[in-house]
Amino acid sequence: MFADTAKVSLKAGKGGNGAVSFRREIYIPKGGPDGGDGGKGGDIIFRADKDTNTLIDFRFTPILTAEDGKNGSGTRSAGRSGKDLIVEVPIGTMVYKIKKNTDEPSGRSFEVAGDVAGGTPAGAPATVGETATAGPAYHRILLADLTHDGEEAIIAHGGSGGFGNAHFKSSTRQAPIIAEVGEPGEEFEAELELKLLADVGLVGLPNAGKSTFLSVVSNAKPEIADYPFTTITPNLGVATIDEKDILIADIPGLIEGASEGKGLGHDFLRHVDRTAVLLHLIDVYNDDAGEAYRIIRNELDKYSDLKDRQEVVALTKCEGLDEEIIKMQMSSILKQNPSAKIFAISSSAHQGLTELLRELKKLCESRFEQTRAKSEEDSLDEHGTGIPTQSRLADEDFARREVNSEMNGVSSIPTISLGNNVISEAWQVEKAEDGKFIVTGEKIEKFARRTDMGNYASVNRLRDIMKKMGIRAELTSRGAEPDSIISIAGKEFTLVEDW
Ligand SMILES: Nc1nc2c(ncn2[C@@H]2O[C@H](COP(=O)(O)OP(=O)(O)OP(=O)(O)O)[C@@H](O)[C@H]2O)c(=O)[nH]1
Ligand SMILES: [Mg+2]
Predict the structure, then answer these.
(1) Beta strands 437-440; 428-431: pairing state
(2) Pocket probe mutation, ligand 1, options 2, 202, 205, 207, max atoms within 8 Å of Cβ
(3) pLDDT score of 294
(4) Of 153, 450, 475, 499, which has the most beta carbons under 10 Å away?
């Protein structure tokens, strides 16, 4: 079975706890603090792999977990980091984080109007309600678009390990008994979507001769038969023309209503979505080639992204056929589209194939030139994220193969992942109905997650940090009393110790 979408639950490793420990040596009765740090939790990394073809495995293993970091110990021994989990996916896999629109940031137990901290990672475009599978009230955030073999992206970050008490020694604190706990790893639902990347996408009615064409011009060996919908999963093949490789994708035949999901329709249109050029094949034995052209063209026009894609038309099975009939079919197509470029070919007799492949190559190259010129103008897309827009991807891939053969591969498409390098110091205080004060904000939540709540000294350190960040002053001005409950990232404590 072919699977081109999948949903998975991801849980990156938790960071190990830092240790509280003191040196004990024969001649040093009161040694200094030597508690080591906890190890980092393992990341979940997705890697594009040319030998993986479908997302089917994720239907059987929908939960992916990376290893936790180990706790630190005495003699400044750091805990071992958790092993990263490497997940192999097909080339062309897009990874989205699913975010329910009702999702609350960690630790929140009530609704606050407006946007909340810790939502969309900086720069990542959020797409609202793209698919029906995750229900209406959610949006997806693109984390990575893995477009070439071996490309990797960290999808879920493991938590940092906590500092051991060796870190907390200062001139005024000679024997610190505090250590941090490890942070939890990122945990969320993700949606995977596979979109084939090719230079040329084959479209046409069932039985038009698409798979036969692919089998003759490329190394691919698709199934071919004289009945509709022989092809039920996409095939990829490489055709070489004038020392240039063209990657061609063959998809199941389209029928009227395909853009609304009829036949195998819509699911497969997405696979030609990222191709630079469409090759529209029409069986010359159709009663009316113009009508066959119109039906497919109509579906492509309704599938918005394909509307303006460059197109070449070829009448198939033309071997031994009367010139007059071929001309008649061509003029019928031209009535539908006066500027259509039409070739007459025969895959079985190998006629007209070289000319057609040359034309496809020319169009792929000119499309690539155009996009290169455009991307020089605006090297970042409209979101300023550096993520190439989808229509650009096929071209970049086309270019990359050229570069690969000449220079052994230096270009790469940038991918994004949940970067947590820049931590926002901003925070917010809200008073909940039950009288608790909820503090949110990336940095303070990070500290709170690392605080060992069972250790009064650690909690006091968190209180100190709140004071330094100005949060305490705000709490007091909002009416917080010493015994008020403060809640940060799900951890609760009183504003002042011993209340
Ligand atoms: N005479 C002749 N027959 C051809 C030619 N190309 C394809 N055919 C025949 O047309 C029939 C359909 O070919 P396929 O390549 O399976 O057609 P398809 O477009 O892939 O069909 P689906 O996968 O069902 O959408 C098969 O019986 C082929 O042998 C050709 O150049 N000449
Ligand atoms: Mg086929």
Answers:
(1) antiparallel
(2) 207
(3) 95
(4) 450
